[in-house]
Design brief:
The protein is of the alpha/beta class. The protein contains nine helices and twelve strands.
């Protein structure tokens, strides 16, 4: 199924423009509708008491500043979307904090675009673990853009991490619109076991071929961390997109991630499309 609606997080972090440009480029390539969502940063639960009007309290000045910043960021979003010639786009200012708002809105989109967490960015530090939370709290694929860039082209050279798991299956299916447009797709199978059959990767390559995607399979045995091996292979094949499953679960705001997922989200060197 092609992407029809793409959601991107809009804020004033130092990597925001790279994220917005990546989302706009994918939306333009896929002829998708692009939604830029900026959040006030105040949880929607504060507004549940109808008798409380924050704009009439001591928080009024603070709320006005939060909304001013959000709208300024949305102005940048509109400029970038128009410059890339996205077919249709819209801006949204949401009274909520980013994690909850994006996880909720993601359910009405085919793809969500976020930035890798950056502990050196004061703005990004206000939403630690945002990509992880949205991935685990929503049922949608998330495209994570590294904070070390730029990435003018995303998805021409794709590396798929395949381990025959449910999460990897979802990620592969969710990435099909991009895989069909790629020049080269490489499927990586690390330390294959019986779940991969007699010829590791052959079944998934056949599945992709039926979707019009020609893929090269690389089965490798490695004794190092799988996440590090995946990043090394991504560099070897010049991948500008990694597709993989996200492993873990969210309990309230506590994130529990698998080792490979944590390694990639911490050390990614190329955009990563993940599904849980």
């Amino acid at each position: 199924m092609p992407y029809k609606t793409i959601l991107v997080h809009v804020d004033h972090a130092r990597h925001a423009e790279a994220r917005l440009l990546a989302a706009a480029s994918v939306a333009a390539d896929c002829s998708a509708h692009l939604i830029g969502a900026a959040m006030s940063g105040v949880s929607r639960y504060v507004y549940q008491d109808g008798a409380t009007d924050l704009l009439q309290t001591v928080l009024a000045t603070h709320m006005e500043e939060l909304n001013r910043r959000a709208n300024a960021s949305l102005d940048v979003f509109e400029r970038i979307a128009a410059g890339v010639a996205v077919r249709s786009f819209e801006r949204r200012l949401v009274d909520d904090e980013p994690g909850a708002a994006l996880a909720l809105q993601a359910r009405y989109a085919d793809l969500v675009v976020l930035s890798q967490s950056d502990p050196d960015d004061p703005v990004a530090r206000m939403t630690p673990g945002l990509p992880e939370y949205v991935m685990l709290a929503s049922a949608r694929p998330v495209l994570v853009i590294p904070h070390a860039g730029p990435f003018p082209v995303i998805g021409s050279e794709v590396l798929v991490a395949w381990d025959a798991s449910t999460a990897a299956t979802r990620a592969l299916a969710n990435a099909l619109p991009l895989l069909k447009r790629a020049r080269r797709v490489t499927v990586a199978v690390f330390n294959p076991d019986d779940a991969h059959g007699q010829e590791p990767g052959a079944d998934i390559a056949l599945y992709l071929a039926r979707h019009g995607v020609k893929a090269d399979v690389m089965a490798q045995h490695t004794s190092i961390d799988i996440g590090e091996a995946l990043l090394s292979l991504a560099a070897d094949v010049d991948a500008n997109l990694i597709v993989m499953g996200c492993y873990g679960h969210a309990r309230l705001r506590e994130l529990m991630l698998g080792g490979v997922t944590a390694t990639i989200l911490k050390s990614m060197t190329a955009p990563v499309l993940m599904s849980h």
